[in-house]
Amino acid sequence: MIGYVTLGTNDMDRAAAFYDVLMTEFGCKRAWETDRFIAWSADEKGQLLLVIKPFNGEPATVGNGTMVSLAATSKAQVERVHALALELGGKDEGAVGPRGDNFYAGYFRDLDGHKLAVYFMG
Description:
The protein has helices at residues 12-24, 75-87; strands at 4-8, 29-33, 37-41, 48-52, 67-71, 91-98, 103-109, 115-121. It is of the alpha/beta class. The strands form two sheets. A four-stranded mixed beta sheet has the order 1-4-3-2, with helices on one face. It has a four-stranded mixed beta sheet with strand order 5-8-7-6, covered by helices on one side. A hairpin with a 4-residue loop joins β6 (91-98) and β7 (103-109). The longest helix is centred in the first third of the chain and has 13 residues, at 12-24. The two termini are 20 Å apart. 27% of the residues are buried.
């Protein structure tokens, strides 16, 4: 079970604006923040998504083969989140649609280049 995911950023303000909008689609809001990170969650005891300045002080980079998946509650939510990500400046990495019998997903990269999926199973 995943407790939290961190995504490195070199521009905290830009990343915050992007995820402030996307995370509201999942009923999440900012749970914690410092000068080094911002964390979003539906509640302070639940799963977290964080954008963070790397601890070692080096520039944030994108992990090759790394992808974060966001679980949607419907196909319509998959479509909304994917469209919002692109509206906010994200890049399309795979149009929304079925992938097999019971998997519906869309893929995008955030403003720092991290690959994310939003999916619905059912």
